[in-house]
């Protein structure tokens, strides 16, 4: 096997480790979303808060820039995460909650 293939294999091993870390972070976020669902249910709050989402997306762009990541990637990933967890909230609370 050529040396450059060994280098690529090592990079892929490190990528796999980062992907596992991402799953751990998503699991932690999921646990927090469970708390959010309980709070929203108890207080009759709507599932979606677009103003909060917009603030989160703007903030993640700033964080990305500070970490030398293309802010478009960070925004797109966070948007997908928000959308996925919003689906869970809708399943738990219903689309028209409150």
Distance between the termini: 60 Å
Radius of gyration: 18 Å
How many separate domains make up the residues?
1
Strand content: under 5%
* Main pleated sheet: none
Helix-strand string: HHH
User: Which fold name is given in CATH as the topology?
Assistant: Chorismate Mutase Domain, subunit A
CATH architecture: Up-down Bundle
Number of helices: 3
The CATH superfamily title = Chorismate mutase
Structural class: mainly alpha
- Average of the residue pLDDT scores: 93
Shape annotation: elongated
Count of extended strands? 0
Enumerate the spans where pLDDT stays under 50 for 5 or more consecutive residues. Answer: none
The CATH class, by name, is Mainly Alpha
Helix content range: over 70%
Describe it for me?
There is one protein chain. This protein has helices at residues 3-43, 50-66, 71-93. It is mainly α and 98 residues long. The chain has one domain: Chorismate Mutase Domain, subunit A.
